[in-house]
Amino acid sequence: MAKPKLAIYWAASCGGCDIAILDIEGKILEVADFFDLVFWPCAMDFKYADVEAMPDKSITLTLFNGAIRSDENFHLAKLLRQKSVVLCAFGSCASDGCIPGLANFTNLQSILDYAYLKSPSTDNPEKVIPQPKTKVPEGDITIPTLWNTVRPLTQVVDVDYVIPGCPPQSNQIAAVIDAVIDILKNGKPLPPKGTVLGATETTCCDECKRQRNIKKIKKFIRPFEIIPDPDLCLMEQGIVCTGPATRGGCGAKCVSAGVPCRGCYGSPAGVRDAGAKMVSALASVIDSTDPEEIDRIIATIPDPLGTFYRFTLADSLLRRAQV
Ligand code: SF4
Ligand code: SF4
Q: Do residue 41 and residue 167 come from a single domain?
């Protein structure tokens, strides 16, 4: 019998999701054995034409990582949707926009100007800014056209499931792969469309082993300003930790290592906007009723937007008009 077909694609991403897939170690051999791997540009030399030539719905499962920030990303998102029975947004860029989505704080022109003209590390005396089409003696060179607004995969095509995380933790990937193989081998029903896989329905705080008391904050600090107590909730020590506004599933990895959670597993179940949830969590721990003192305490929050929306800006209520 023909093997189920698997595709893995990266759009606007850092490659960490592909590395996390390889981090499942020996289980990757089970994947290679069970599936016919038909597309994985990060690992093997497949061409887009190979995918275009496949019949519609001939790929059993596509794991799509990366955000959509160029016409090439968009083309591949639509193509893989058309060719796949199940399309899974894999990782934070595909589900929430993640770090590429922080580009939505500004606009494309400002980013290009900074990267190619103003950055202190740029040496560009000709002031060349890459264009989608460039004439050279040998002909025209075309490169993907960047979008002004970065979008998660979930905003541009119909997505069946989401696996959150930056990147998803390897133990969770392995568990999802086991479940998928079990479903396909034994004819079991698929989970309901829209299910978040490889994560919990609660928050990072629920997985965190640090001791929690009543939080009363007079001043927020950056992690390097103190040596944190290894057992006490980081927030109680004045370090902004987005655990209360983040979906569980990673096993509270960062906080266990003394680093505050930054929210890579996205919004917890039932929360529309992780940043807004974090603002509400912080509002309840500020230790003052005096408006001026409250303003002073709020002013000590380091990089509020970049902290509250580091992984979810492109899918938040703040995302700008889609232009
Ligand atoms: S706020 Fe951070 S440190 Fe405190 S309990 Fe939640 S995850 Fe743990
Ligand atoms: S602790 Fe937070 S930032 Fe770290 S891996 Fe878990 S969800 Fe991501």
A: yes
Residue 136 within any structural domain of the chain = yes
Q: Which of 203, 216, 226, 235 to mutate to test the pocket of ligand 1 (most atoms within 8 A of CB)?
A: 235
Is the distance from CB of 235 to CB of 204 less than 8 angstroms? no
Does one domain contain both 88 and 218?
no
- For residue 323, is pLDDT > 70? no
| Residues 245 and 144 placed together within one structural domain of the fold | no
Beta strands at 139-142 and 133-136: parallel, antiparallel or unpaired: antiparallel
Angle 39-45-46 from CA coordinates, rounded to 5°: 35
> Which residues lie with the beta carbon below 6 Å from any ligand 1 atom?
204-205, 208, 210, 212, 233-235, 241, 243-244, 252, 255, 261
Q: What's the average model confidence in pLDDT over 288-294?
A: 94
Query: Would you state the pLDDT for residue 321?
Result: 52
Look up the domain containing 19 and give its range: 5-99+150-186
pLDDT reported for residue 192: 96
Residue with tokens 């034409």: 49
Cα 243 off chain centre by: 16
For tokens 């309840």, the residue is 284
The span from the CA of 190 to the CA of 179, in Å, is 10
Looking at the predicted structure, is the pLDDT value of residue 322 above 60? no
Q: CA angle, corner 277, sides to 228 and 321, nearest 5?
A: 125
